[in-house]
Amino acid sequence: MDAKELWQRYQDWLYYHAGLELYLDVSRMGFDAVLVEKLTPEFAKAFEEMEKLEQGAIANPDEHRMVGHYWLRNPAISPNLEIKQEIITSIEEIDTFTKKVHSGAIKPPHAPKFTDVLSIGIGGSALGPQFVAEALAPDEPPLNIHFIDNTDPAGIERVLARLKNRLNSTLVLVTSKSGGTPETRNGMLEVKQAYAVQGLNFASYAVAITMPGSKMEELATEEGWIAQFPMFDWVGGRTSELSTVGLLPAALQGIDIHAMLAGAKEMDEATRLREIKNNPAALLAVSWYFAGDGQGKKDMVVLPYKDSLLLFSRYLQQLVMESLGKEKDLDGNTVYQGIAVYGNKGSTDQHAYVQQLREGIPNFFATFIEVLKDRKGNKFEVEPGVTSGDYLSGLLQGTRQALYENQRDSITVTVPEVNPKIVGALIALYERAVGLYAYLININAYHQPGVEAGKKAAASILELQHKVMESLKGAGKPLGLGELAEKAGYPEKIEAVYLIVRHLEANERGVVLEGDRSQPSSLLVSAE
């Protein structure tokens, strides 16, 4: 395709949203009008299913739940008055609580004001808030935010060490739908102990974000935590950023949550349009379908050319992969669907993996995120007539062109700047694209049986660990791994027993291993 034809294709397929000043360019994806026409009947069904979703249809059959994250930014479309009022009330409570914290009306026992926020959560309870904090937190926020998002003891200690001298002015948000998520519970218990070591009453610093009636709510009520905010049964973790999960930490940092909600609502309205060329989420879904032949054959490489969007690819990784990575389709057929997502920021990663993107295995399509405004005010030139931002823009355009010249497909999303309204719109755009694409390929984007399977497997390992320790303490002599597995009641799980005792020994947990470490079957295990 020559330059003139390419320019015409760019204009033919360019989407522009005037209210958001957002552009979507899919001209460097190789699909044509024939594919769009072929997919039109499937899109018609997808639009119908999305409409049913917003009206309150059960979309998560595993848990018999509605999926209503779209209601969060427009309570008026909620399926009933009760849900509408729950949403409105939750936002009012966030506003009120935030004002009181910022003013000092709600304060810690031993300091005039809270200075920091420590957010404890995992998955959707962490990724969204982390992305938004990186993208939107002001340089001097009213409260600085920190995250514990794993059950890694060293990681937890590192965060607590940074807060050591300000723990007495740190507000703790504990986010868990059920209150039983092990990683979040562990983080909470570690933090609770850190407060106790400093002679501080954890409850005077703690806020729960959880489901009404959950174990977390019971604990918070029993201990007298500062406040509780609701999580909703009909909001999944990966789509929870515009619920209390993401809005409360954002508001505490001084981020305009109402602008975020407004941007998402505006994008929702744009992505309800049933004409594919005028619907940005539909254009993304067509592009994804074309790239991977409707089977996820190519990875999505996300390259935001703005430091503040560093975590956008990580946020999209969960949204896309947890939603689309499914073994079965809606008819029960084995299909092994999904789109792998990875990426980091441009132009940093032009020095990391763009070499392979241009000349290596063509197993991907790129998504460039372009931000038009470089910065406010300062127009410093690094050379005559050229700013650092000009270089960034040039590197983006050059990389896009270099990929195209070597038959590598790409999408470019262009926004005017990174602000709360735009971030809300980006969240909504990709949420809708995921939903539409899922219906195109006949899978359910709103359940995640694989995640539950992993949790159950982890629980079984911890149960085995308990039995291994009981068996060791009652043995009275060193045991071989086979003997130990037999005594614990799991003779077929010798490898799991080996991995357990190796971990326990490394952490001085009362286990000793003797023998040739390169030959695990020779090892003898005893209790200290």
Automatic annotation (TrEMBL):
Coiled-coil residue windows: none
EC number: 5.3.1.9
Keywords: Cytoplasm, Gluconeogenesis, Glycolysis, Isomerase
Any one GO MF annotation of this record: monosaccharide binding
Cellular component terms (Gene Ontology): cytosol
CDD domains reported for this sequence: SIS_PGI_1 (cd05015), SIS_PGI_2 (cd05016)
Organism: Gomphosphaeria aponina SAG 52.96 = DSM 107014
Family per record: Belongs to the GPI family.
Function: Catalyzes the reversible isomerization of glucose-6-phosphate to fructose-6-phosphate.
Location, primary (coarse class): cytoplasm
Subcellular location: Cytoplasm
InterPro entries on file: G6P_Isomerase, Phosphoglucose_isomerase_CS, SIS_dom_sf, SIS_PGI_1, SIS_PGI_2
Active site: 322 (proton donor), 351, 455
Organism placement in taxonomy: Bacteria, Bacillati, Cyanobacteriota, Cyanophyceae, Oscillatoriophycideae
Broad class of enzyme this protein falls into: isomerase
Reaction catalysed by this enzyme: alpha-D-glucose 6-phosphate = beta-D-fructose 6-phosphate
Transmembrane segments: none
Protein name: Glucose-6-phosphate isomerase
Pathway named in the protein's UniProt entry: Carbohydrate biosynthesis; gluconeogenesis; Carbohydrate degradation; glycolysis; D-glyceraldehyde 3-phosphate and glycerone phosphate from D-glucose: step 2/4
SUPFAM superfamilies cross-referenced by the UniProt entry: SIS domain
Gene3D superfamilies: Glucose-6-phosphate isomerase like protein, domain 1
One GO term (biological process): glycolytic process
